[in-house]
Write a structure and sequence with these properties.
Number of domains: 1
Oligomer: single chain
Strand order of the largest sheet: 7-8-9-10-6-2-1-11
Shape: globular
Radius of gyration: 17 Å
Distance between the termini: 36 Å
Number of helices: 9
Number of strands: 11
CATH architecture: 2-Layer Sandwich
Length: 240
């Protein structure tokens, strides 16, 4: 598997990159890849079907100058900020393998990610809760979502490493959909940081996924074009 770091891109370009890389693989122009990027600014990202007015404190975002974006996959709304680490997996779908359907792919990917993170905190309990949440003890450290095409899938998530977690309560409302294990806890009681350096987490994930080969010549022109035409457009970001 190849490895790609896209941290220097803008928020809209990072969101566009996931879609471009998935579509290129589907079209036969790419292969399985592990992508990393670290936010350098604070912004909100809604899941594909999320209603902005229900999930986001838009007044607070406007007052703080925090932009709101929408990604191409499902799942809940998140706050991206410095101290977080995003990863994306572009994986091939096989008829009889662990990526054959949504459920088996979730289980397969989350278990590998859990195993990787556990190597960094061997005395702690890292578990998969809900369908695609990664937890340290009873608190969430990562949320994930999936988008599938015919031959490839995109699975991506955000790990809280050293984030200002108060921003989540400031910028988001209580989510309209919650996993049972959350037990209606407010954001401040539900999430926590791993308190690990990004490079260490990248290394264990890359090792777990055998992402040893650096991807060369990523399609940055296509990424920039899609960012301009879609992910920077208000009609897309506020479509629901």
């Amino acid at each position: 598997m190849k490895r790609l770091d896209l941290t220097p891109l803008t928020p809209a370009e990072n969101l566009a990159a996931d879609e471009v890389l998935l579509d290129r693989c589907e079209a036969g122009h790419g292969d399985e890849t592990l992508v990393f990027w670290e936010p350098r600014e604070t912004f909100v990202v809604a899941g594909y079907a999320n209603k902005i007015a229900c999930e986001v404190n838009t007044v607070a975002c406007e007052a703080k100058g925090i932009p709101i974006f929408r990604r191409c996959s499902g799942g809940g709304t998140v706050v991206q900020m410095p101290g977080g680490l995003n990863y994306s997996l572009i994986l091939r779908i096989t008829e009889s393998g662990p990526t054959r359907n949504i459920t088996t792919a979730n289980q397969f990917i989350m278990e590998k990610n859990r195993r990787a993170i556990t190597t960094t905190l061997p005395q702690s309990t890292i578990s998969v809760r809900g369908h695609t949440d990664l937890c340290l003890g009873e608190k969430k450290i990562a949320g994930n979502s999936q988008r599938r095409r015919k031959d490839f899938l995109l699975f991506h998530g955000t790990l809280l490493l050293n984030c200002d977690l108060t921003l989540i309560s400031d910028l988001l409302t209580m989510p309209s959909l919650q996993p049972d294990y959350r037990a209606h806890r407010p954001h401040g009681e539900f999430v926590t940081n791993l308190n690990l350096p990004a490079e260490k987490v990248k290394a264990v994930l890359a090792k777990e996924w055998n992402a040893n080969e650096e991807s060369r010549n990523p399609p940055l022109d296509e990424v920039s074009q899609l960012a301009r035409e879609k992910y920077m457009v208000r009609e897309w970001n506020y479509k629901f």
